[in-house]
Amino acid sequence: MLAALTATKLIASRGEDEGPGQDIAITHIHAAVRDPETNQVLLATHQGLFALEDRTKTPTDRSGDGGISQDDAPRLDLISPTFDLMGFTRAPDGTFYASGHAGPELDFDEPMGLISSDDGGKSWSTLSRGGQSDFHGLAAGNDVIVGYDSELRATTDGARWETLVPPAPPTGLALSPDGTTIAVVAAADIHLSQDQGLTWTTAPAPADISLATFADDTTIVAASPEGQLYLSENAGQSWTTGGPVGPGLTSLSATRTDSGVDVLAVSDLNVFATTDLGLTVRRLV
User: Fold this and answer.
1) Total number of domains constituting the chain
2) CA distance 209 to 222
3) CATH of the domain at 117
4) 221 lies in some domain
5) What is the pLDDT of residues 191-236, one digit of tens each?
6) What is the residue range of 133's domain?
7) Sign of the alpha-carbon dihedral angle for 111, 150, 253, 157
8) For the whole model, what pTM was predicted?
9) Which end of the chain, N or C, is less packed with Cβ atoms under 10 Å?
């Protein structure tokens, strides 16, 4: 188990163009996603979308405090207006989608419904369900977006939504990049649909599951409530057991790379990275 899982304070900057004295106290990280085009880690938070400059060089010491030295302290720069991104996802074409609550810099409905950005998070526009939906879960694939706001919904154009009926209320949500497979975590199982939610099958998960995400069209990374990682490269039919990232994970994302699968996991104000399914883990924040 990783030590020192919780940070008590995380300070970020508004960026070099905003001048001095603009530090921001981040109170919660909702999601961490790596942009495969830039290799940059993006943090969706209660205060906006931040870019993380990763300065850590060594795996987390599981026997120590897992800390980050002053020289390796991460730089976080705000790249969006200030608002609460309860849901955040990056589509394969690079478009960002989010939901949540608008801050004073955005004249959006409350809640925001589905919003999008095609300039890396600098500007955002409302697509649909403004004033209706606060999507705590969002996932985007090719030509499909799935969201959960107490109902599981799907849209192919960002405007018209279809209500789906999962086997049980989802606690986690994922979508394959090609948009063909929806995965929901419900009642500690992973349920998959390849017909836009008309029918569901239960994947033979190796343990109780709390989170799941797709690294590519057929590769799923899952985590147990204790933070144990599992990998399936055949859409949930069989699994490889990895190591523990740590308990209390609230978000999971994964990216297929030339050398394997890059996983990011969030717990409160901490972000962990692993490229070997949790055998070694780095704390980025």
Assistant:
1) 1
2) 7
3) 2.130.10.10
4) yes
5) 999 999 999 999 998 899 999 999 999 999 999 999 999 999 999 9
6) 10-283
7) negative
8) 0.89
9) N
